[in-house]
Design goal:
Layout (H helix, E strand, L loop, with lengths): L6 E5 L4 H11 L4 E6 L2 H14 L2 E6 L5 H14 L5 E4 L5 E2 L7 H29 L2 E8 L10 H24 L3 E8 L1 E2 L8 E2 L3 E3 L5 E2 L1 H13 L5 E3 L2 H12 L1 H15 L1 E5 L28 E2 L3 H7 L1 H5 L2 H18 L1
Parallel strand pairs: 1-2, 1-4, 2-3, 4-6, 5-9, 6-7, 7-12, 8-11, 11-14
Antiparallel strand pairs: 10-13
Helix pairs in contact: 1-2, 1-6, 3-4, 4-5, 7-11
Length: about 325
């Protein structure tokens, strides 16, 4: 199918990576269905898609409601046509030590971040599998493999998505299906989540450096949608190093993160008690947060590792470099612990 005729669904499309992904597909002329809760953000995202050359369809929906997600999928196919790509990106979380997260908050965040992917994937496959074509892209994280302190809610959900996706991929392969599901594991990204995720930290939250712009993630998601036969993509050198270190020296990494993980995720400014939180209600009431967060001055706009990942023939020649990097990580962590 011509990319300009593709119908693409993006959950969590009002901010951060989802917003950048919607813009990226729109620049190809795609029909982009925007699924999210906040009406202000949906209106703004639809305007972005229109200006970029795409055809928008804003669908207010809470991805934690499986019936609502399925109804949204029906509306997309009725108004835009058969969906070719479904991108799961919606999430919410709580920045806090585990014992400071209320069980109801944990359930809510898990329903959105994990079950939202399950419900979105199910809605997509219910329509793609009978046609025997389509791709589902799961926006993941290095934290799908490596948990860090203060983010037990988010890390648990991302680990669950990883396991769910692996199981589903095996089933599709067993069935010989031409529908593919792939995952994009991201590094820290400069998104507005640090201004709208519920926080119980003494200081304002921040991403762990190095930080990348959401457009880097969007390029990776689009590439994955175009090449969904690969099981997953790693974005950013920090993601590669984190996952390699977790395989080689997980115990050292535990101790290293115990020492550095708290300060690395907090700014100098004290927590703002009036900061909006999107756990139960959308945070963008009358405010469009857009794609970028507060870290433009320190976020990278490109990833050489991503380029190598997309050009695997050249990347194969870099195997010695990866081995050297792994050795370097081991030495670094042992020196710091």
């Amino acid at each position: 199918m011509d990319r300009r005729e593709r119908v693409v669904v993006v959950t969590g499309a009002t901010g951060g990576v989802g917003r950048a992904v919607a813009r990226r597909f729109a620049a190809q002329g795609a029909k982009v269905a925007l699924l999210a809760r906040g009406e202000t953000g949906l209106d703004a995202a639809a305007g972005d898609v229109r200006r970029a050359g795409g055809v928008p369809l804003a669908v207010p929906v809470d991805v934690a409601d499986h019936a609502a997600v399925d109804a949204a999928a029906d509306r997309v196919e009725k108004e835009l046509g058969p969906m070719a790509v479904w991108v799961n990106d919606a999430f919410t979380s709580v920045f806090a030590p585990f014992m400071k997260v209320d069980p109801k908050e944990y359930v809510r965040a898990t329903r959105v971040t994990y079950l939202g992917y399950v419900f979105g994937t199910r809605a997509a496959l219910a329509r793609m599998v009978p046609r025997d074509q389509g791709a589902v892209v799961q926006v993941g994280s290095a934290l799908a493999y490596r948990g860090i302190p203060l983010q037990a809610v988010y890390c648990g959900a991302k680990h669950a998505i990883q396991g769910f996706t692996e199981s589903l991929r095996c089933e599709l392969l067993h069935d010989g299906s031409n529908v593919h599901v792939t995952m994009v594991q991201l590094p820290a990204v400069n998104t507005p989540q640090f201004d709208w995720v519920l926080s119980r930290l003494p200081r304002r939250p921040r991403p762990v450096r190095p930080i990348y712009q959401p457009e880097v993630a969007a390029r990776a998601v689009m590439f994955a949608a175009d090449h969904p036969q690969r099981r997953e993509y790693w974005v950013g050198g920090s993601t590669v190093l984190t996952l390699l270190a977790n395989k080689v020296v997980p115990g050292l990494l535990d101790r290293y993160l115990a020492r550095t993980g708290y300060s690395a995720q907090q700014r100098q400014q004290p927590d703002d008690p009036d900061q909006p939180a999107n756990l139960w209600q959308p945070a963008d009431r009358g405010v469009d947060f857009g794609a970028h967060g507060d870290f433009d001055d320190r976020a990278a706009s490109r990833s050489y590792q991503l380029w190598l990942s997309q050009h695997r023939g050249l990347a194969a020649g870099a195997g010695i470099g990866v081995a050297a990097a792994t050795w370097g990580v081991q030495r670094y962590l042992r020196q710091r612990v």
